[in-house]
Amino acid sequence: MIILVINCGSSSIKYQLLDMKNEEVYDLMAKGLVEKIGLPDANITHKPTGREPVNIQVSIPDHQVGMKLVLDTLVNPEYGVLKNFDDIEAVGHRIVQGADFFSGSAIVDEDVLRKIEICCDFAPLHNPAHLLGIRAVSQVLPSVPQVVTFDTAFHQTMQPYAYMYALPWEYYEKYRIRRYGAHGTSHEYVSRRGAKLAGIDINNSRIITCHLGNGSSITAIKDGKCVDTTMGFTPLEGMIMGTRCGNIDASIVPYLMKKENLSPDEMTAVLNKKSGFLGLSGRSSDLRDMNAAALEGDVKAKIVLKKLTYDTIKNVGGFISELNGVDLIVFTAGIGENNARLRRRICENLSYLGVRIDEEANINAAKTGETIISAPDSSVKVAMIPTNEELVIARDTMRLASELED
What DSSP string describes 188-213? Predict the structure, then answer.
C-alpha cells in the first residue's frame, strides 16, 4: 500500500511517501519539506530515494497550494516517483493534540475533524495547521482515505493521579485541563524498537524514553504502556527546551505580567518562544551553538548545558522510582541521537544503579544508527534509537485503511 505521510506545521509541510509491503517491510520512495508558506521565499525540498534532491522556490500562499505542490512534485516526470495521483492509496497525518478524545489513530470523518478543532485551544500553533493539511488533501484527493495519529494518544494510559492537576475539579470538567503529554508517537516507536534491540519483552518491561530535541520530553513506560511523562496540558511543561521554559513557579506568570505590563498572549510568547536555551543564554535556541559558546567560556551557555543534563537526570531518576527500577533507557530525537557527551553525563549519574556506558559505542552511535550504548556488564541496558514517527503513522494508516476495504 502506497501511503503519503503528512506533518503540517504553521508554515510548513513535511512529507514522506512509503510503499508499505507490511508493518515491517517497506520502501521509502521520497521525502521532503515545504517551507515558509505565505512568505516571499517559500520553497520545497524534495528528496527522491536514490536520486539527487531537488529544491524549488515558488509562491505558496497557503497550505492547499502547498499540498498541491507536494502532489505535483511526486508525479513530476523528471524527479517524481509516481505515475499519477491514483497510486496514492491512503494519507496519514500527524496531529499534535487529541486531548482525551483519542486513545489511538482514527479514520478522518466530520466528528474527528470537530474534535481536532476543539483541541486547537490546547495546541494553537499546530492543530489549526493540521486541519488545513487534512482539508487540502480532501480537495485534491477526495476519494482517498485519511488517517490521523495523535501525539497525545500513547499517554492516554496514564492514571488520574498522574494526569490530574491539583486545581478545582470544575476546570477539568469545563475546560479539560489535565496533563496530556506529547511526542507519544516517538516514545511508542523507540520503546518498542529499543526493547527488541535489547532483547527485552516489551510486555514485561520498565523503560524510560528520553526524546531530547528543540522540544524535549521523558516518558516512563511499563509493560509497553505509558504511566507518566514530563509534558503536560501543553508541550510547555517539563524540562528546559530550545525556546520553552519548562517547569516554573506558576506565580512567576502573573508577577511578570504586572511588572512588564504584558498581555496573556505576550506572556505566552515569553514562555514558549523567548525562554529555554534562547532565553537563558541570550544567544540561540540550538544546542550546537551552546556547545560552541561553552567551549569559548560563555558562562550562560555552560549553565544551559548543565541545566539540560540536570533536568534529564532528575526526571529519569524520578521515573526510576515510579517504575520501581528500570530495564532500558532510550535516547532519541535531535539532541538525544547526536550528543554523545550529554548521554554519557546523564548515565554517569546513574552509576549507583550499575549503569555502565560503552564509550566507543556511545561516541559512534550517530554513525551506527540504532545501537546499544551500554557496556556488557551494565545492570541496565541503554540504547540510542533514531525516532521514526512517520513509520508509526504509516503503519496505523495502512491498518485502518485496510479495514475500510474489508
Answer: HHHHHHHHHHHT--GGG-EEEEEE-S
The set of cell numbers assigned to 342 is 550529554
Inter-CA distances, 37 with 63, 70, 129, 240, 291, Å: 7, 13, 11, 29, 31
Q: Which of 191, 202, 186 is nearest to 150 (CA)?
A: 186
Question: Phi and psi of 191, rounded to 5°?
Answer: -65, -40
Distance, in Å, from the CA atom of 239 to the CA atom of 316, rounded to the nearest integer, reads 11
Residue with cell string 483541541 = 119
The CA–CA distances, whole Å, from 404 to 4, 89, 401 equal: 17, 12, 5
86 is catalytic: no
The pLDDT of residue 406 is 62
Polymer length of the chain: 406
**β-strands 90-95, 146-150 pairing:** parallel
| Beta pairing class for 206-211 and 328-332 | parallel
Q: Is 58 helix (H, G, I), strand (E, B) or coil?
A: coil
Rg of the chain over CA atoms, in angstroms?
A: 21
pLDDT in tens, 2-53: 999 998 876 778 899 999 998 888 999 999 999 888 878 888 999 999 999 9
Cell 491539583: give the residue. Answer: 166
pLDDT at 84: 85
User: Does the model's pTM come out above 0.85?
Assistant: yes
Residue among 19, 72, 151, 201 flagged as catalytic: 151
The per-residue pLDDT for 10 is 64
CA distance 182 to 48: 30
Residues β-bridged to residue 20:
26
Phi-psi sector, 12: left (phi>0), alpha (psi -120 to 50), beta: beta
